[in-house]
Amino acid sequence: MKDQNNKTLLVTCITDHKASFYRLAYSYVKNQEDALDVLQDSIQKALASVDNLRNPNTVKSWFYKILVRTAIDFLRRQKKIKVMDDQTLEFLSHGKEDTYKDIDLHEALDELPVQYKTIIILRFFEDLKIEEIAEITDENINTVKTRLYRGLKLLRINLTKEDLS
């Protein structure tokens, strides 16, 4: 009965926050179809391990954690792909790019190391609290605060450097 309640809670959470979850996936992969793939993989992983959910009150941050890890795994797999010929290139470039309003900000975010980028996205784009981010990333609260500060400092340096160019 508990597993069924957790599954219902998970489905409700995903339904209620689907736009936020999609935005987070998209912020990593920069492609609509890939973001949907990452989201779908995350949902499958969550449904398969819903019985591991210890505290039903943390279902949203639990799913964020799965989503972030799935997106990072996806990016690692993409780095291993080497394009050999035009057919392969054509096959891999089937995705459609979405457009951003603040292209400079998103380009600067992409240049950040993953640990800083993740924390900045979760804090400012998903409006999560430091404690929730610490839980999602399995880091100490002080580590999250430090990485947020350093990430913002690096972001500021990157944006200032682009303004000077």
Automatic annotation (TrEMBL):
Keywords: Sigma factor, Transcription, Transcription regulation
Ranges of residues in domain RNA polymerase sigma factor 70 region 4 type: 104-155
SUPFAM superfamilies: Sigma2 domain of RNA polymerase sigma factors (SSF88946), Sigma3 and sigma4 domains of RNA polymerase sigma factors (SSF88659)
Domain RNA polymerase sigma-70 region stretches: 14-80
InterPro entries from the UniProt entry: RNA_pol_sigma-70-like, RNA_pol_sigma-70_dom, RNA_pol_sigma70_r2, RNA_pol_sigma70_r4_t2, RNA_pol_sigma_r2, RNA_pol_sigma_r3/r4-like, WH-like_DNA-bd_sf
Keyword hit for Nucleotide-binding: no
Family: Belongs to the sigma-70 factor family. ECF subfamily.
PANTHER family registered for this protein in UniProt: RNA POLYMERASE ECF-TYPE SIGMA FACTO, RNA POLYMERASE SIGMA FACTOR SIGV
Protein name: RNA polymerase ECF(Extracytoplasmic function)-type sigma factor (Sigma(V))
Natural source organism: Bacillus atrophaeus (strain 1942)
Organism placement in taxonomy: Bacteria, Bacillati, Bacillota, Bacilli, Bacillales
